Amino acid sequence: MKPRFVRKSRYEKKNRYVRKKMQLLLLIVALLSLAACNDDMTPGQRWLATTTEQIRQGYQQLSAQTRAQQQMADAFCQQPDAQGLQTMQAAWRESMASWQHMQWLRMGPIAQDNDDWKLQFWPDKKNILQRKMQDILEGSEPVSADSLVHASVVVQGFSAQELLLFDPQFATVEKFAGRQCDLLRASTTLTARVGQKLADAWQDETWLKRWVAPTATQAGLTPAHVRNGEILDALLAQIERIKNDKLGEPMGLKTRDKKPNGYFAESWRSENSLANLQNNLLAVQQLIRPAQGYGLFQYLKDSQQQALADEMVIKLDNAQQALQQIHPPLTSAVTDAAQQPALQNAHRALGELATFCKQKLAPALGLTLGFNSNDGD
After folding, report:
1. CATH topology identical between 52-202 and 223-377
2. Which DSSP category does 292 fall into?
């Protein structure tokens, strides 16, 4: 009699996933405790453990969203129609939200192989994207994920998909009858691959050991201090990028003529610019006061810095509320005289949040910040 093969139930698969997740979480805690050479975790170690778990979950979410988007693109391209195009646009927004939530982390596995640029090419002040996309669409070589992976990062990620799905020159059902659908499928396949690669990297025990126990470069610093300083540095760089590049650039604050230009905004074709900013700050909020776990707010409190903890929350709330006062889309808001007070207020609030992180938060926690290119802009 031939042996019977029993298919594992969804319940069993889910249990296996939960066990794996708990094993990795326990590994993080164990490594941090070992690094401290005692049984009690310090505030810095608790924040690193929570942040590490948030990063892992964030990349799992990005992987799930990009995989779902790829599957929707495959289904849409079998028979393109108006409803399918709307579904694809919604799927792109969901994937973009997941990416914006993780965009602050520009170190670790994502820094290898230009994976951050493969996910999104921006800024693009000279509109390089449209020219390169047009070249592919007008070409004769077959378009697939395996061919696109060898092309420029400009045409591989979310910016390329945005152009196909939202730009009036491209986003019509008739345009998706041929090569444009091939390009959409290839691009969504590549972003799904990158998303899966990053999620897998943050499940790797070897990497997690290196992450939670980096080599101290200065005498007297614990591994948690070293890594937390890098995390805060990355967070500060993102806040300054929001202020200077994502908001200040389209407002005209970085150009010589000081003229606003909405086309310098991130995700201007989809009118998703302000949603990106709000998702960026939600990621900051999660690091400060997560729904579960140990955030910067508690870290400050346990470091006898209650007043600073309260000030930090106020600075973040001010920035979030200021952004909500800008009426979308940002592309037209920057040239609307009536919206200038709201834009200036948001820019100022973001600057105050960045200054707080540099001048008060880092010193209070004894964390060392490095240099970033947005500093002082």
Report:
1. yes
2. S
Q: Are 52 and 290 in contact (CB under 8 A)?
A: no
Both structure tokens of 94: 């969901």
Taking the C-alpha atoms of residue 107 and residue 225, their distance in angstroms, rounded to an integer, is: 16
Structure tokens at 20: 């794996």
C-alpha 240: how far from chain center:
15
In the structure encoding, which two tokens stand for residue 208, read together?
């997690």
Q: What are phi and psi of 215, to 5 degrees?
A: -75, 130
**Amino acid identity, position 284:** V
DSSP for 285-297? HHHHS-SSS--HH
Q: Which of 297, 316, 317, 300 is nearest to 354 (CA)?
A: 316
Write the DSSP symbol of residue 246: I
* Alpha-carbon gap, residue 332 to 25, rounded angstroms: 45
CB-based contacts of 132: which residues, under 8 Å, 6+ apart?
Answer: 151, 152, 154, 155
C-alpha–C-alpha distance, residues 306 and 291, integer Å:
19
Residue boundaries of the structural domains of the chain: 52-202, 223-377
Contacts of residue 248, defined as CB under 8 A and 6 or more positions apart, other chains included, come to 254, 347, 377
Which residues lie below 8 Å from residue 77, measured CB to CB, with a gap of 6+?
176, 181, 182, 184, 185
Which homologous superfamily does the CATH classification assign to the domain defined by 223-377?
M75 peptidase, HXXE motif (1.20.1420.20)
The token pair at 198 is 């990053």
Judge residue 350's burial from the number of C-beta atoms within 10 Å of its C-beta, 0-12 exposed, 13-18 middle, 19 or more buried: buried
CATH number of 52-202: 1.20.1420.20
pLDDT digits (tens, 9 = 90+) for 272-312: 999 999 999 999 999 999 998 999 999 999 999 999 999 99
Read out DSSP for 171-232?
A: -SGGGGGTHHHHHHHHHHHHHHHHHHHHHHHTT-HHHHHHHHSPPPSSTT--HHHHHHHHHH
Instruction: Supply the pTM of this predicted model.
Output: 0.89
The pLDDT tens digits of the residues spanning 119-152 come to 999 999 999 999 999 999 999 999 999 999 999 9
